Amino acid sequence: MDGTVHALKQVEPASATVALTERFPFAIVGHVDHGKSSLIGRLLHDTHSLPEGKFAELKAASDKRGGQFEWSFLLDALQAERDQGITIDTTQIFFHTAKRRYVIIDAPGHKEFLKNAISGVAQAQAAILVIDAAEGVREQTRRHALILQLLGLRQIAVAVNKVDLIDFDRVRFDAIAREITEYLAQLKLSPTNIVPVSARNGDNIAEPSANMPWYQGPTILQALDSFQSAPVATDQPLRLPVQDVFKFDERRLVVGRIESGSLRVGDRLEFAPSFKQAKVASIETWNAPTPLTAHAGQSVAITLDDELFIERGHVAVHSDRRPVLGYRASLRIFWLDNQPLKVGQRLKLKVATAKYAVEVERISAVIDVEKLQPSEASEIGRNAIAEITVRSRALMALDLAADMQRTGRGVLLREGDIVGGALVLSAEASDVDKRLVGPDHLVTRDAREAVNGHRGAVLWLTGLSGSGKSTLAMGLERLLFQRGRQAFVLDGDLLRQGVTSDLGFSPKDRAENIRRSAEVAKLLADAGQVVIVSLISPYAEDRDRARKIIGERFHEIYVKADLATCESRDPKGLYKAARSGAIKNFTGIDAPYEAPQQPELVIDTTAQPMERSLAALTAYVEPAIALQLVKDAWAI
Amino acid sequence: MSDLDALENQSIYILREAYSRLKPIAMLWSLGKDSNVMLWLARKAFLGHVPFPVVHVDTGKKFPEMYAFRERFAKTWNLNLIVRDCPPVDEIDPSLPPAARSAARKTIGLKNVLDEFKFKGIIAGIRRDEQATRAKERVFSPRAESGAWNFRDQPPEFWDHFKSDLPEGAHMRIHPLLSWTELDIWRYIAREQIPIVDLYYSRNGKRYRSLGDSDITFPIESNATSISEIILELAHTKTSERAGRAMDHEREDAFERLRAQGYM
């Protein structure tokens, strides 16, 4: 404490003003044990940023432990870290040069802790990638470079550390420089500098090294000072994701942070994806003058000239520069969860303040970190980088990461936990929802189908009792359900317990049974369902009437099996009962079955196993219910 | 945009996220400079309002100037103030060193407040530059039912996406000042003219740089009698801010243990 005032007088006055201005957060990344923490320790020492006596204290502590002093001890603030000998979480350290204040984000290199590395590095504006000169480029060197790229960092300097261990050899340094440059080039990154350093001895950290006369480039400190601050995205389209709507003092305030672009009082804003529009009446502040404009980076509160229903997740935009509105998107993701991600799984995609329930439709590729080649995979394991297609139940407003960094990315949530990061590679525009907008807000069939991701349909399974209709119907329903389709079985036996319980088995009653069943199936298909009707429906005339009622979404599927086979199966004992006369008018015994003349599909179950019949049925159904897509925009 | 504007806008964003995602929520008010800045930022975020209770977990050992400050500004700023006393020191884990044991009273006091009001969110004014274990914090930092902080397995947090779903009984600590430095705090106090307890100004060659309990907090030698002099002093100091807080220094891991158990 008594050193405080004394220390003040030792520092030249110039630093007082520069230290107050720009702050620049940067990350130090690289393979485990390549010397990240040592580099930080050295930077702090060489910029005279260590507290009085700290160096001596640590040196003493190190001697007491009986080991050699390591610069990394400085950062090992937590007891647990010293125990394990690895950096557990991200740490932030401060120092300044003559140019500006720096915040060092130390990201752990150990593979276990990728989520911590990401949490740290995402706050950085630039990075130093540390490579051990003796070991060269390693797996996590590449992985970290890839993470930098995914996180949107474009300024990277490389520190080839421990050059004392390779005798300051230029040839070996050049080989490493070439290897990392080539790798970064594949990521469309180019290092700002590649600096040979020895963190332990201080070569090329703050002062140029006398040991490497062949190196004329900048020191690490000079490389840092040459990084540029990120420009604020004011020239991009306006994106103001709504955080909340406050009702204070009779004012209704829509609040959020402008992620890109600008807005002005009087601007007409559209709240995507809703198409609702209103004008900005005012930009409200407290204890500050009320401005007429607001820009990217500002957390604002605005009032509107019209009371619209606006909620968290809407994005205020100018309607001439809308985001893509659609249900499908292809994403590049990094996966952080222990449980792998698989096709068919449901997640939440959170972009700015919007949360969309999505289903993984497809895993297009998992990226090999070494070669950066995509390869096929059925699941995405922890720490993997992959490309997937997701489909949302609700209309999404998405930007592409390539155009709009801040709103073109988001996180994946599973049960409320962040389990991955996502960049939007492409999004499929949907034009159906404009039809939803209007005075009466009709939900059209098209809109419903677009939300479901498939068309409504009636699959009319006809055939003898015991031909396998129910088994196929139930199997198909389960399969479609697992794929996220809206599917429902209308079973003849179940219908007869309710909707048609007043009817018998005379031809007239059978006709009415079919008519009612067809009407129910039509309503369900209108509601977007894939209706699987399982009915003997023996008369061609009745089935034709069903076709008329339902229209073009009717699919007649003849489940065929000869009588002997059906009778030998006799799952409900009905044939036996009919043969003994206990049941009258039983189809195939004492009532006719008129086989369809031109069904959409025939499945002969006589000889083939039920699994194969189900596969044949599924193969027919999927294209039959597929939406007619405008374009295949998620092909990568 | 200046760096102070950037910090202010970021903190407002965090406060609004917390208010939107976590209910019921409250803010801790230690009466120190940081929590006064935090309150000020809340009034900016909520247009002059503080739309949640402000909690003072009272050790009963603050400086008289701090209590006077509390009474005055709770009224001036129209705060919904909740004051709760901490349990006596003999109820605290005797294995802790004396000052840490005294500070741990606040951990239990806070736990009692959580039990009483069932807050899902607690906004606290800690900063990364204060102390090494605080440097590891998340902006949204989940706490188990016991209040414990599992610093070994923290949720990922990037691109301003914060974990906000919690299991029953757990709560979230929200840290809107995490990226601020001590210097930023003083520059912002100067810019916004935020009221502070005058113990921060030099009297008889000494001033308090950090305010805690009167028995375990010590002043530093300083002649800074105005905010601009404090700023000038801090621009050159190499001593840590919490040097005057005894509990940080008793044992290598004392503060880490305090924090893992739920201390702010």
What this model shows, in words?
The complex is a heterodimer of chains A (636) and B (264). Chain A folds into 4 domains: 216 residues, P-loop containing nucleotide triphosphate hydrolases (Rossmann fold); 81 residues, Translation factors (Elongation Factor Tu (Ef-tu), domain 3), CATH 2.40.30.10; 113 residues, Beta Barrel (Elongation Factor Tu (Ef-tu), domain 3), CATH 2.40.30.10; 172 residues, Rossmann fold, CATH 3.40.50.300. The longest helix of chain A is centred in the C-terminal third of the chain and has 20 residues. Chain A contains 17 helices and 28 strands. Chain A is an alpha/beta fold and 636 residues long. In chain A, the strands form 6 sheets. In chain A, strands 2-3-1-4-5-6 form a 6-stranded mixed β-sheet, sandwiched between helices. Chain A has a 6-stranded antiparallel β-barrel with strand order 7-8-13-11-10-14. Chain A has a 6-stranded antiparallel barrel with strand order 15-21-18-17-22-23. Helix content of chain A is 27%, strand content 28%. Chain B is of the alpha/beta class. Chain B has one domain: Rossmann fold, CATH 3.40.50. Helices cover 34% and strands 11% of the residues of chain B. Chain B has 7 helices and 8 strands, in the order H-E-H-E-H-E-H-E-E-E-H-E-E-H-H. Chain B has a 6-stranded mixed β-sheet with strand order 3-2-1-4-6-5, with helices on both faces. In chain B, strands 7-8 form a two-stranded antiparallel sheet. In chain B, helix 1 packs across helix 2. The interface between A and B is large, with 71 and 64 residues.
Q: What is the CATH domain class of the largest domain in chain A?
A: Alpha Beta
Counting helices, strands and paired strands, the structural category of chain A is alpha/beta
What is the H level of CATH, i.e. the homologous superfamily of the largest domain in chain A? Answer: P-loop containing nucleotide triphosphate hydrolases
Poorly predicted residue ranges of chain A? 1-19, 77-89, 435-441, 629-636
Number of domains of chain B: 1
| Multimeric organization | heterodimer
Report the major sheet of chain B.
6 strands, mixed
Number of domains of chain A: 4
Identify the overall geometry of chain A: elongated
Largest interface (CB within 8 Å) is between: A-B, 71 and 64 residues
CATH architecture of the largest domain in chain A: 3-Layer(aba) Sandwich
Sequence of strands across the biggest β-sheet of chain A: 2-3-1-4-5-6
Beta-strand residue fraction of chain B: 5-15%
Our count of helices of chain B gives 7
Shape of chain B: globular
Question: Roughly how many Å apart are the termini of chain A?
Answer: 61 Å
- β-strand percent of chain A reads 25-35%
In the CATH hierarchy, the architecture of chain B is 3-Layer(aba) Sandwich
